[in-house]
Design a protein that fits this description.
Blueprint (H helix, E strand, L loop, with lengths): L12 H12 L4 H8 L3 H10 L10 H12 L4 H8 L3 H9 L2
């Protein structure tokens, strides 16, 4: 008789990594939980256990610097590397220039 493997507990690593990416980019915990079908408590536990850090909020100074860089002709990807502001956000701002 071959012993059966115990069922795996927990979530796949891909789910946890996506949760970390969203959390660190500043997404709301409730929206992360809803999107990934994970409990809010689990997100908080992971954040504490793995010492996830949220990005600094976009301050007025950071936004103005990013818009200045976009106006100078830098791509949203280049501005993202310099400021840490989400590329999608930068595309939206660039469209308004």
């Amino acid at each position: 008789m071959i012993p059966s493997a115990a069922p795996r507990r927990g979530y796949p690593d891909e789910i946890r990594k996506e949760a970390e990416r969203l959390y660190c980019s500043g997404a709301a915990v409730t929206s992360i939980a809803t999107k990934l079908t994970v409990s809010v408590r689990t997100i908080h536990i992971w954040a504490k256990k793995y010492k996830w850090e949220r990005r600094a909020p976009i301050t007025r100074v950071r936004k103005l610097k990013a818009i200045e860089l976009l106006a100078e002709g830098l791509t949203p990807q280049e501005v993202n590397r310099r400021t840490g502001i989400n590329t999608r956000t930068l595309y939206r701002w660039r469209e308004k220039l």
